[in-house]
Design brief:
569 residues, alpha/beta, Rossmann fold, Serine Threonine Protein Phosphatase 5, Tetratricopeptide repeat, 2 domains, six-stranded mixed β-sheet, globular
Length: 569
Amino acid sequence: MLNKKLVNDPLKVADELLDGLVEAYDGECVKVGRRSIVKTAIPQGKVALLVGGGSGHEPIYHGLVGRNLADGAACGDIFAAPTPDIVLEATRAVNRGNGVLYLYGNYAGDVMNFDIGGEDAVDEGIDVRTVLIWDDVCSAPHTQKNKRRGVAGLVPIVKIAGAASQSVKSLAELERIARKAVLNTRSVGVSMSPGSIPATGKPTFDIDPDKIGLGMGIHGEPGVAEIPMTTADDLTVKMLDLIFQDFIVDSEVEELRAGDEIVFFVNSLGATTMMECLIALRKAKQVLNAKGIKVYDTIVGPLVTCQEMSGISFSVTKLDAELKGYWNLPCESVCYSKMETLGAAVAPSAPAPVAASVPSGPGFDVNQVHEMLRQVASKIIAAEPILTDADRALGDGDHGLGMQRGMEAVLEALSGRTFATVDEPFTEMGKAMMSSMGGASGVVFGTLFRSAGRELKGRSVLDAAGLAVSMQSAVESIQQRGGAKPGDKTMLDALDPAARRAAEVASLPLTEALKEVSDAATAGMEASRDMIATMGRAKTLGERSIGHPDAGAVSIAIIFQTMRDYANP
């Protein structure tokens, strides 16, 4: 059954909700460029704090722009990272000549898109640094904190960093304080029922009524494990024990002991009522009091949401004198406001094989390449339901919509155009996907076609040798950008064997080579069924990811099947 949502065009909700958010700020913030929100008053010389991420989690991240909080936010589509051009426009808008700190959740799509936007900002002379939020203790062991997701702990972390940004004198000092806040913040979340993406209305995952998803993500990912449905008191103890244990085993942070002070955040994922949150808070305070841990400040409510997901999370931020000083600074935004703490101290001042080089057989001229890429775009658009279902099995179900959005932008970019050389339509295709899709897929698939454009620069014909060189370049660029490798259950598991086969058949006519390449891509996609995901949102599923092909690999298979069919009508 579809979930009802009060929207207009389901594909425009991210833009329309941002317009509404700007109105909610009553003149304190303005919309900048395509999809960024920025404070109207940022002092010259201030070290700027830029947050951001996908929409659909309101009121965060974009509701954390405000007094003594973030200076701006780069806003993505629903559950998708902001694209590099949005990150760049937001960076320009908040920059006041003393550097910009990026502070956001550790998700592959966000990392890649912010990295590209940051590289472009550096090229313009803006000093940029990044701190990733990785507070979700369930998503990776403490020895691999860099692989953890950023979840509800972002609220106290952004609050502390926002306060620090008002007084620090250097970007390096703000980076240090933000990293300290991240290190001292740990979260655990659970879900009882899923949320949904407005564009589809379908739930992002399935769970039995008598089960709870432990360690769920805020993008609609299912939990890393399922436990029997239980009482609020029993679940509260289990969740706190996971947080306590993580502070114990991690040598980089002191364990929680009697006398320590914390900020404690009970978050609703959207549908969980305040009643349920308060019942859990009641038990949590009992447990914390029994351990002698003092709750210095409490936050409770639906601040980090996942549409209508029924779920709850706990976040603990351990305070020392420095962090407490920044915590005490009052703040105000649509998402979170804090009054001045009576008697509080003032915030401290700033302390594969290489393709064969032999001549190839006949290939395609620029007009044929242009038409082939148009057919690829149309085929992917038509395959949206297939890609959505493939992604629902392993992720949050948005891959099909993202690819559809990207390929619609491709058709618009290629429509009515004439090109002089075969690299040009590939490059335009890559640019259109990067600027329209968001998330990791936008970067990864955009890189695929942009890499082809670079390798084919100035050529009048696409032949099998050119195809092989461009595909190998794409594999290398994607691995470098995203950190994935063949066997991680990503699109590379279809692309890499296809690129290797392209190198082996580089002397054939292009029509024959594309048959071989398509077969290799399809075989690679099928092989991904038997793999355990170790990258992307599906990595938390472990062995439960076996049996399903990676959605990105399905897209790769369709792309090369379409190229094969065009070449061999």
